[in-house]
Amino acid sequence: MQPHKKLNILLVEDDKESMDFFVSCFGKEYNILCASSGEEALEYFEQEDDIAMVLSDQAMPGMTGVEL
């Protein structure tokens, strides 16, 4: 029997404390990919083909969550 594979969640958040809190809450159950900007999140989209969910801050400098 194969072990359960963790789903990848891409968290896009420019606030480090919020990011750390989310990872501490959900990091055991899910593989959390952290991006601190929309531009960094786009790099994950190019590299990863199995992102199950994206959770994004809406108000970030450079690129908003809506623009992402």
List the helices and strands and how they pair.
Elements: E1 8-12, H1 16-26, E2 31-35, H2 38-47, E3 51-56
Parallel strand pairs: 1-2, 1-3
Modified residues (4-aspartylphosphate): 57
Keywords: Phosphoprotein
InterPro entries: CheY-like_superfamily, Sig_transdc_resp-reg_receiver
Structural summary, described in words:
It is a single chain. This protein has 68 residues and is of the alpha/beta class. The longest helix is centred in the N-terminal third of the chain and has 11 residues, at 16-26. The chain has helices at 16-26, 38-47, and strands spanning 8-12, 31-35, 51-56. The chain contains two helices and three strands, in the order E-H-E-H-E. Helix 1 (16-26) links the parallel strand 1 (8-12) and strand 2. Strands 2-1-3 form a three-stranded parallel sheet, sandwiched between helices. InterPro entries: CheY-like_superfamily, Sig_transdc_resp-reg_receiver. The modification 4-aspartylphosphate is found at residue 57. Residues 8-68 form the Response regulatory domain. This is Response regulator receiver domain-containing protein.
